[in-house]
């Protein structure tokens, strides 16, 4: 199975590289994607991650779809992928879904696994299979570059990208950590050499949450080089 998976990855990477080489992309693209935070109250991203406030104090916790405050506390820090998914489903007119019910359902399909007393990061292969139930198609890429991301966006896809959490311009992870957080890339500008993304745990005060635009050079510092292209 590992050999088959590696072959699929090689093919996906190669096909995208060929598309990028022979195709043309517009000067700029900005898809209008509704923003969804992985926290019930978007302002709590900073309060929890920077100010060390307890998730239990977020009075809007029920808006996440959690059945209890304990369930909200258990899932909130892990649902960056589900926040990206909720945004994708809104953008592609598949309905409005809250993050924790999505996570609960995804876990049944192996998208999340038990990790000691906690929950694993989002598992890519089960994720793209699970996503089909919503009528969306997804492809995993392990050799992404900004140029290849532009190709995907120009074709109508959105891109879930693996990044270092410090992309929110506040350090919560080791600088050399590869990945650990997921953001949704929604646009680019070739002339200005920027990418625009929605960060499910970005901060309101430094404007790293919704429509966060940053230079490609800065993005590549945090980018793990892998992600998922999603289209209808």
Helix content: 25-40%
What is the rounded Rg? 17 Å
Task: Characterize the main sheet.
Answer: 7 strands, antiparallel
Give start-end ranges of low-pLDDT stretches.
none
Count of helical stretches: 8
What is the CATH superfamily? Cysteine proteinases
Overall geometry comes to globular
Look up the CATH topology.
Cathepsin B, Chain A
Distance between the termini: 27 Å
Succession of helices and strands: HEHHHHEEHEHEEEEHE
Question: Helix/strand/pairing class, anyone?
Answer: alpha+beta
Per CATH, the class reads: Alpha Beta
Mean pLDDT equals 96
Structure description:
With 232 residues, the chain is of the alpha+beta class. It has one domain (2-231): Cysteine proteinases (Cathepsin B, Chain A). Helix content is 34%, strand content 19%. Strands 1, 4, 5, 6, 7, 8 and 9 form a seven-stranded antiparallel sheet that branches. A two-stranded antiparallel sheet has the order 2-3. It starts with a helix and ends with a strand.
């Amino acid at each position: 199975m590992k050999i088959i998976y590696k072959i699929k990855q090689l093919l996906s990477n190669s096909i995208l590289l060929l598309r990028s080489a022979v195709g043309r992309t517009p000067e700029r693209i900005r898809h209008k994607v509704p923003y969804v935070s992985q926290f019930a109250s978007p302002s709590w991203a900073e309060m929890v991650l920077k100010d060390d406030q307890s998730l239990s104090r977020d009075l809007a916790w029920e808006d996440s779809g959690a059945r209890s405050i304990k369930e909200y506390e258990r899932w909130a820090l892990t649902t960056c992928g589900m926040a990206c998914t909720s945004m994708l489903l809104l953008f592609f007119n598949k309905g409005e879904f809250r993050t924790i019910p999505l996570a609960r359902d995804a876990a049944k399909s192996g998208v999340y696994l038990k990790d000691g007393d906690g929950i694993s990061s989002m598992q890519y292969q089960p994720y793209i299979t699970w996503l089909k139930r919503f009528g969306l198609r997804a492809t995993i890429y392990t050799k992404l570059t900004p140029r290849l991301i532009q190709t995907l966006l120009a074709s109508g896809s959105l891109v879930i990208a693996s990044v270092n959490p410090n992309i929110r311009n506040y350090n919560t992870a080791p600088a050399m950590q590869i990945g650990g957080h997921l953001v949704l890339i929604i646009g680019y500008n070739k002339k200005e050499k920027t990418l625009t993304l929605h960060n499910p745990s970005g901060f309101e005060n430094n404007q790293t949450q919704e429509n966060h635009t940053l230079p490609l050079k800065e993005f590549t510092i945090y980018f793990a080089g892998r992600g998922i292209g999603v289209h209808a």
